[in-house]
Amino acid sequence: MTPMAGITDSAWRQICKSWGADIVHTEFVSVDALYHGSTKTMQMLEYKASEQPVVVQIFGKNADLYPKAAQLVAKTGVAGIDINFGCPAKKVAGHGGGICLLRDMNSVKNIVSKTIEAVDIPVSVKTRISLRKIQGQPEAGDITVFDFIDALADLPIAALILHGRSYEVPFTGPVDLDMLKKAGQKFKEIFPDAPFLINGSFQTVESVVEDLKYTKADGIALSRALYGRPWLFKQIKDYIATGEYQEVNWATIKETAIKHANLLWESKNDRAFVEMRKHLLFYVKGRPDATELRKQLVRVENPDDVAKILKPLK
Ligand SMILES: Cc1cc2nc3c(=O)[nH]c(=O)nc-3n(C[C@H](O)[C@H](O)[C@H](O)COP(=O)(O)O)c2cc1C
Q1: 259 CA distance to ligand 1 centroid (A)?
Q2: What 3-state class would DSSP assign to 4?
Q3: Model pTM greater than 0.90?
Q4: 299 lies in which domain range?
Q5: What is the CB neighbour count within 10 angstroms for residue 312?
Q6: Closest by CA position to 296, among listed 284, 275, 256, 286
Q7: How far apart are alpha carbons 135 and 123 in whole angstroms?
Q8: Chain centre distance of CA 177
Q9: Which of 138, 232, 233, 305 suits 17 as a labelling partner, its CA being 20 to 30 A distant?
């Protein structure tokens, strides 16, 4: 499961883990905030033992802040650190972080090598296939993931998660499977032992398996496809192992949603419970009474409210 700001908190990670996720990522965490000891940011690093292996994703433009930030992360006992080189959001890329870092491959190399030197846990990287021009930044010419892989060639990076979309088309449309395939080939030539994971736009169990075959990737990192259906991990694994998988019935969906609500309640304060509402809308998607249910679910305040609405439903 990839990092997703506002989504991949401890409760969601526990749910995904319980459905077979091999590795879960936290939401991205700013190296600036870690460096300056932000209490709120340190709270974002909290996790339960059952979530392991947990990987914390960090972001920021200043290479000098990475070693201390990475050491703080490593102290929590998580399994690894991932560095964000793909975020297109204005508040990240517009300040020189995320995908904007690709404009200066020396900086990329510097950030990754400083982080690797600072900690004993594995350090992976996540990026996109390409970038042309970032609004408000000087033209840097076409930059691709091939340049990125070249820049990291001398470093012992632990894995690459490659989102198959460019900066220019950040979240919509299909991924570029040919670019994913070619990048994977190049990555494995240089890093034969490091997993290459593809990411982006994956919707069905069958398409995931086809895309894995086509790109020859070692694995897949799932994101929005998981909304309301964390069992996708189990279904994909079952399909790979046996050629078949089970649809999930409403009793299981309901049980998962209620468990999710309870985990969120336990791990965050009650004010944060409103975050559960968006997940609930996805859990009921596809039910004939979804529209009616939505009206009730957008008002839930606690796990009891959730159980009261969902439990009686057949
Ligand atoms: C709400 C949201 C938050 C995200 N936050 C992060 C993040 O913190 N770090 C990151 O590397 N990618 C982040 N992403 C990108 C996803 O990890 C993923 O690369 C992207 O959604 C493409 O996969 P998909 O098409 O399967 O959703 C985010 C995406 C969404 C939709």
Answers
A1: 24
A2: coil
A3: yes
A4: 250-310
A5: 8
A6: 284
A7: 29
A8: 19
A9: 305
